[in-house]
Design brief:
The chain is about 50% helix and about 20% strand. With about 375 residues, it is of the alpha+beta class. The strands form three sheets. Strands 2-1-5-4-3 form a five-stranded antiparallel sheet, with helices on both faces.
Length: about 375
């Protein structure tokens, strides 16, 4: 009884399952949907194009209302990707060169996505290309994760480089201070001459003050690296005026002419303390490295280029030899003009502040031709 019942159920189930030939389109559609893939095929003369349902879905199109051509399919790709896919398809059709590429396209609904496109040539018995077809895959989520990982990796590598710079300072600069202090204290302890003792005490005070300044500088760098984003809307002209007031005596002493031009934007969403510090460092450098043979001119301008806000601080000072110092310009404790008051930390902090807020900074300069520091927000 039990055995007969089981055979009956199995027989009924078999009658409910359609033949394999009838399942193929439905199975193919389900598999394509699960894998986010589709199949395409181009006629040998390149005049017609077949898309499976999966390719339509990736393009967010209805197969009932859209019939693709090769030209129309290529137009879905982004401006950067169009010449690449055009070359790949032409080379595949004409020479049978297979391809496997990751490109960007814009769907019918306006979404920009990453896709993987694979093309393969098939040959007949005579060794001639009989057809070309391939696979189309939506890899947008995977690609965005990969790009995010690469961005994070670069950030970590940059942080590791800065940690190495800190290690260099601790192992060399601070050790030098403590070694000098230890030597002078031992010499001081071994002399009874009051004049000599006074001389060493003054030297110890100067070394101690310099050590305190170094520690304060390192603390400022750590603060810039560790603090989170605390932005607010800043009126740029007000910030510039405040820095000019701080530097008033130095500007007057340098007989500097200052020009401010607000072009395209007057406000920025930024950390106020960072913005003040950036302006202060760049303007202080213009004063510090002015050319004594000519009157100092400083130009502070705002502009919009390629849709990005930019701030430029330009001067006619001594300039920088970028061929010689460009690679280390923003490095910690890097100096280039031999000034006694140069500490080599201002540009490092400025770069750290700009990048911590998502911007970038670069310089255009040459010896005796001044310098232009550009910041893109």
């Amino acid at each position: 009884m039990y055995g007969k019942s089981s055979k009956l159920k199995i027989a009924r189930m078999k009658r409910l399952v359609p033949p394999i030939s009838e399942q193929e389109p439905q199975l193919l559609s389900q598999l394509e949907d699960l894998a986010g893939v589709g199949i395409w095929e181009i006629s040998l003369d390149g005049s017609s194009l077949y898309w499976s349902e999966g390719v339509y879905k990736i393009h967010e199109l209805d197969p009932q209302t859209f019939t693709p051509t090769v030209e129309e399919a290529i137009r879905f790709y982004t401006t950067d990707s169009i010449p690449i896919i055009t070359e790949l398809v032409n080379t595949l059709i004409n020479k049978g060169v297979e391809y496997d590429a990751e490109l960007q396209l814009v769907t019918a609904k306006g979404r920009k996505i990453w896709v993987r496109v694979i093309g393969k040539a098939f040959y007949n018995e005579q060794g001639q290309i009989s057809k070309v077809s391939g696979l189309f895959q939506d890899i947008n989520k995977m690609k965005l994760r990969e790009l995010a990982y690469q961005t994070h990796k670069k950030k970590v590598e940059a942080q590791n480089l800065r940690l190495q710079q800190f290690a260099h300072i601790v192992s060399h600069n601070l050790r030098s201070y403590t070694g000098n202090l230890d030597l002078m204290i031992r010499v001081l302890g071994g002399t009874t001459d009051e004049e000599e003792r006074d001389t060493y005490w003054e030297q110890i005070k100067r070394v101690s003050a310099s050590l305190n300044e170094t520690i304060a500088n390192l603390s400022e760098v750590v603060r810039v690296e560790s603090e989170g984003r605390k932005s607010q809307l800043i009126r740029v002209k007000d910030a510039i005026d405040k820095v000019f007031l701080t530097l008033r005596l130095k500007l007057e002493e340098a007989n500097a002419l200052v020009h401010v031009e607000m072009g395209g934007w007057e406000e920025i969403d930024f950390e106020p303390a960072y913005f003040d510090s950036i302006l202060l460092n760049l303007l202080s450098n213009s004063i510090k490295y002015r050319d004594p043979e000519r009157q100092l001119h400083i130009h502070v301008t705002t502009s919009v280029k390629a849709g990005k806000k930019q701030l430029t601080v330009k001067d006619n000072g001594r300039g920088i030899d970028l061929d010689r110092y460009g690679a280390s310009l923003f490095g910690l404790y890097r100096t280039f003009h031999g000034n006694k008051d140069a500490r080599g930390i201002g540009l490092f902090i400025t770069k750290s502040q700009v990048e911590s807020m998502g911007g970038k900074i670069w310089v255009e300069s040459a010896p005796n031709l001044g310098a232009s520091f550009h910041i893109e927000f």
